[in-house]
Amino acid sequence: MFEYEMTLAGTVNTDTQDIARGLRLRDVDFLRALVGQYQYRLVRYFIYLLGKRDPVDDLVQETWLRVLERGRSYDGRSRFEPWLFTIARNLAIDHMRKKRMSSIDVDESLEQELEALTPVSNAPSPFEQAARTEDAQRLAHSLQMLEPIYREALVLRFQEDLSLQEMAAVIGASVSTVSSRIYRGLAALRAQLDGGAHAN
Amino acid sequence: MQTDRHQPICHLIDKSLVGTASLEEEQTLREHLLACTACNEYLAASHRAIAGLGGFSFEVDPGLEEKVLASLARQQSDSKQNHSMPVWWSRLAALVLTIAGSFAVSRLADRAAPVLHVQATQIQLGLAAFWIVPSVCFFLLFLVLSVSPNKKGLSL
User: Fold this and answer.
1) Does the distance separating the beta carbons of B50 and A32 come in below 8 Å?
2) pLDDT (tens digit per residue) in A164-180
3) Is the pTM of the predicted complex or chain greater than 0.90?
4) CA gap A13, A88 in Å, rounded
């Protein structure tokens, strides 16, 4: 294991049309660079979404397979990240659904699946393991305890820099729902850093 | 901070951070922040929380990228095989039809001519024109299709 350095991963021309063309042609060098460039971000997204590390590598692999399989459906008219994270999210939900198959109500929505995901292990959380600053160490516990839907909103907005509209497309929810998830996520983090003095 | 006076401003701060505040709301917020320590603290705490998210560095298995590339190559290979199967079957069918046509010309034309009240040569020409030549053409076409290189294909 090592700390991923994006500079080693090669660079990809992030112009969306170039990405669409590369995916359509299944260009070798392009795909290699694309995997390198987005690998860390996919890992981070899955960790935020799932709150655990175990299934992440498999899901990352599955995501890229799905990207290759469905690459032609990306037309390059919008940013690549929302398209990629939508695939990743669906796979994560499929994964959770399979794990909980025996107890799932067939009408249960995807959102309920995410809401139902709660941390179960006493081992250090992936957030505790990844915290590199004092504030991050303080936030790690809050993040682990936060419901996945709020963690997801935080990472997509403040780490991936997705717009609210892009987030709404990824999550499959309204912009107002996305906004309120970010508010709640932020409130939880603020409360942790500020001793709860300013928590909503 | 939880007073009625500050609560709307805190909400505005949230909206501003998320990117949903209007220009008017941004202006109201700026004016309020000029004179309100409590709300400035709230804003600072919010900035700190957001910045804190950047303090995580998740480890990535160094072998993951190679695994991903290997599975992509595998999928590409499987996909190519599946894609080439119909070509192989078509080529085989064309070959069988060519052989069957040739057999029909050599063996059956003489026998069929009296029954059909035509000359054997006419049957042979008909078979050659409508059976053997198209079969040979399809065979050659499929042969060319199956050996033409896919220059952009994934072979990681």
Assistant:
1) no
2) 999 999 999 999 999 99
3) no
4) 21
Contacts of B55 in chain A (CB under 8 A): 131-137, 139
**Same domain for B47 and B69?**
no
Q: What is the dihedral of CA A139, A144, A148, A153, to 10 degrees?
A: 10
Residues B74 and B136 both lie in one domain:
yes
Closest CA of chain B from A163, distance in Å: 8
**Set of chain B residues whose Cβ sits within 8 Å of the Cβ of A134:** 55
How close A105 comes to chain B (CA, Å)?
33
The domain made up of A16-99 is a member of CATH 3.40.50.880: no
ipTM of this model? 0.80
Range of the structural domain that residue B21 is part of = 3-56
DSSP B14-36: HHHHHT---HHHHHHHHHHHHH-
Cβ contacts below 8 Å, chain A against chain B, sum to: 148
